[in-house]
């Protein structure tokens, strides 16, 4: 009986760390799932906006966007989207969409640098030309200048995503899409 009593603390020394490792693995898995859901929603939000603008441009031939126009506001005014449509991404950053002078739209989103890099790679892997993606730029929260990622500058050796988004708390990603 005394041997059994002596083994009881030894069992706890083995069982407790194993349980802690299992709980830690579940927490880590849940965190990864939440981050992937955020990423998917952010990419979907951008693609949904681009699709909504293109649909509006097809359905309403007289719908034009002047350079600098807030596309969210124009779509609400045209009745293409609901005024309750969120302009906030899953990381609580703003998503802005502005018409450019060349008949395109610039979609900017504030997000963490890691997710900025993920979104760049996501859009680059989705065949940018087929998406009507004209350019990608990124800016670290502390920078003033934008760094071009796509099409890559002639002097750039890598894809530029690492330096473009920086390592600050936030980054800003700009995607320019063709409207028509």
List low-confidence stretches: none
Spatial strand sequence of the major β-sheet: 1-2-5-3-4
Approximately how much beta-strand content do the residues carry?
15-25%
Number of helical regions: 5
- Name the average pLDDT: 83
CATH class: Alpha Beta
What class do helices, strands and sheet pairing give?
alpha+beta
In the CATH hierarchy, the architecture is 2-Layer Sandwich
* Secondary-structure element pattern, one letter each: HHEEHHEEHE
Which SSEs are present, and which pair or pack?
Blueprint: H1 2-59, H2 71-77, E1 95-99, E2 104-111, H3 113-125, H4 128-131, E3 133-140, E4 147-150, H5 161-165, E5 171-178
Antiparallel strand pairs: 1-2, 2-5, 3-4, 3-5
Defining traits:
180 residues, alpha+beta, TcpA-like pilin, 5-stranded antiparallel beta sheet, 5 helices, elongated
Verbal overview:
The protein has a single domain, classed as TcpA-like pilin (2-Layer Sandwich), CATH 3.30.1690. The protein is 48% helix and 18% strand. A five-stranded antiparallel sheet has the order 1-2-5-3-4. The termini are far apart. The relative contact order is 0.13. The mean pLDDT is 83.
Question: Nutshell version of this structure?
Answer:
The chain is α+β, with helices and mostly antiparallel strands. It contains 5 helices and 5 strands; from the N terminus they run ααββααββαβ.
């Amino acid at each position: 009986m005394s041997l059994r009593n002596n083994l009881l603390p030894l069992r706890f020394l083995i069982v407790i760390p194993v349980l802690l490792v299992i709980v830690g693995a579940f927490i880590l898995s849940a965190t990864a799932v939440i981050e992937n859901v955020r990423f998917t929603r952010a990419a979907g939000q951008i693609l949904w906006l681009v699709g909504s603008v293109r649909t509006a441009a097809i359905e309403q031939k007289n719908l034009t966007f002047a350079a600098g126009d807030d596309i969210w506001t124009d779509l609400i005014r045209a009745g293409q989207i609901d005024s309750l449509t969120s302009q906030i991404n899953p990381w609580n950053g703003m998503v802005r969409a502005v018409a450019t002078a060349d008949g395109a739209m610039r979609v900017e989103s504030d997000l963490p640098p890691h997710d900025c890099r993920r979104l760049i790679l996501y859009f680059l892997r989705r065949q940018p030309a087929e998406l009507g993606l004209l350019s990608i730029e990124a800016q670290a929260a502390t920078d003033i200048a934008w760094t071009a990622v796509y099409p890559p500058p002639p002097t750039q050796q890598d894809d530029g995503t690492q330096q473009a988004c920086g390592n600050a708390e936030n980054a800003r990603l700009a995607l320019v899409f063709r409207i028509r």
